[in-house]
Design a protein that fits this description.
Blueprint lengths: L7 E4 L1 H14 L4 E2 L1 E2 L1 H5 L3 H10 L4 E4 L2 H10 L4 E4 L8 H6 L3 E4 L2 H11 L7 E4 L11 H8 L2 H6 L2 E5 L11 H16 L5 E2 L3 H4 L9 E2 L22 E12 L4 E2 L7 E2 L4 E5 L16 E4 L2 E4 L9 E4 L11 E5 L5 H8 L3 H7 L5 E4 L5
Parallel strand pairs: 1-19, 2-10, 3-4, 4-5, 5-6, 6-7, 7-8, 8-9
Antiparallel strand pairs: 1-11, 11-14, 11-18, 12-13, 14-17, 15-16
Length: 363
């Protein structure tokens, strides 16, 4: 029997489903899909996608063909779309695995047109750029395509989509300008259902909703707007084992670079997690963890495999064998704020040594 005592990410699938229901409740369109790219933002695509499918989700989005193929083995009867679209030589793989390419450029349209017109069940999604300057057809490109109804039919385009750049900032003027440009694209393709809203876009209100929403981050508890209370629940608890506790017999610096000193008698816990597991080095001397109900500070630098916490304030009889880094008290957004990043990066940086378990967490 293998005994595991390493970094552990516990994911509450019931909370993921509850977040999906919350997003559905705010969406006025016909269907709420789920974005499960990057291994469901690092939390485990198989378990999360299966739970969402069991909850009634019919459509899923991933980034790459490889992700789509892996997801198809888990979800044999759901719609799976691939944001990056069909690359050179990939068209037959899309057909074989019944994946829906998002067509982002005239080249991808031409690539898909060659095979889709000869296959009766090969739907695609058309992506237009509404001023994000990333993927998607430009206004001149979509105008040219709108004048080619045979190509639209042959490519079996079933949805028109775009992506919001600033939805997490509700007052940002680009939201309204992107909406106006997307409305122009919708008018050019009047028979197609449309999709614009991501997680934050859902909370911009009904004008942004259209027929399909594509939430991602908020399924996993990441706030759609940091300036307002988070409408979704934290879904994880990240903890790591304590390898050793030492009591300093003299005032001493802690860790590489001697960046901090602790006084005589301090109790220092060395914990088995570090930047190789996804803990940002910039959190050195900033992060806190929890032992039971007590908050304890990280002292010294984040290193590849280990952190040091000052647990002097924890009575010896209350010491745990693990320190909790993320939970309801200090969620992923709090960690992201400390690191000067976003929750997406915190989750997707969690490494392979961090075991994922699926549990029901007690509030």
């Amino acid at each position: 029997m293998t005994i595991f005592d390493g970094p552990l990410l516990e994911v509450d699938l019931s909370r993921v489903v509850a977040n999906y229901r919350t997003l559905q409740s705010h969406f006025t369109g016909a269907e709420c899909a789920a974005v499960v790219k990057a291994n469901a933002y690092g939390l485990g695509a198989e378990a999360i996608s299966t739970a969402l499918a069991d909850a009634g989700c019919q459509s899923f989005f991933v980034a790459t063909l490889e992700e789509g193929i892996a997801l198809r083995s888990m979800l044999p009867d759901r719609r799976i779309a691939v944001f990056h679209g069909v690359g050179h030589g990939e068209a037959m793989a899309f057909l074989h695995h019944r994946l829906i390419p998002v067509l982002n450029s005239p080249q991808q349209i031409e690539r898909w047109h060659e095979v889709a017109r000869a296959n009766p069940n090969a739907p695609s999604i058309l992506h237009v750029d509404s001023a994000m300057a990333r993927l998607g057809l430009t206004p001149s490109e979509w105008a040219a395509l709108a004048a080619q109804p045979d190509t639209i039919r042959d490519c079996q385009i079933s949805l028109l989509m775009s992506h919001l750049a600033c939805a997490s900032e509700p007052e940002h003027p680009q939201n309204a300008s992107q909406l106006a440009r997307f409305e122009s694209a919708c008018a050019a393709f009047p028979t197609l259902p449309c999709s614009l809203a991501n997680s934050a876009g859902i909370f911009l209100g009904a004008p942004y909703h259209y027929q399909l929403a594509r939430p991602g981050c908020s399924l996993y508890g990441i706030t759609p707007d940091s300036s307002r209370p988070n409408p979704v629940q934290n879904v994880v608890r990240l903890s790591a084992p304590i390898l050793q506790i030492r009591t300093l017999d003299s005032a001493q610096s802690i860790g590489y670079g001697a960046t901090i000193e602790r006084p005589v008698g301090s109790r220092i816990a060395t914990v088995a997690i570090g930047y190789a597991d996804g803990i940002f080095r910039c959190l050195s001397n900033q992060l806190s963890g929890y032992v039971g109900d007590l908050q304890v500070p990280l002292v010294g630098r984040v290193t590849m495999d280990m952190l040091s916490f000052d647990v002097s304030a924890v009575p010896e009889g209350q010491m745990s064998n693990r320190i909790v880094l993320i939970d309801d008290r200090q969620d992923v957004d709090a960690i992201a704020t400390l690191a000067g990043t976003i929750g997406y990066e915190v989750f997707t940086r969690l490494g392979r040594r961090v075991r994922r378990d699926y549990v029901e967490m007690v509030a």
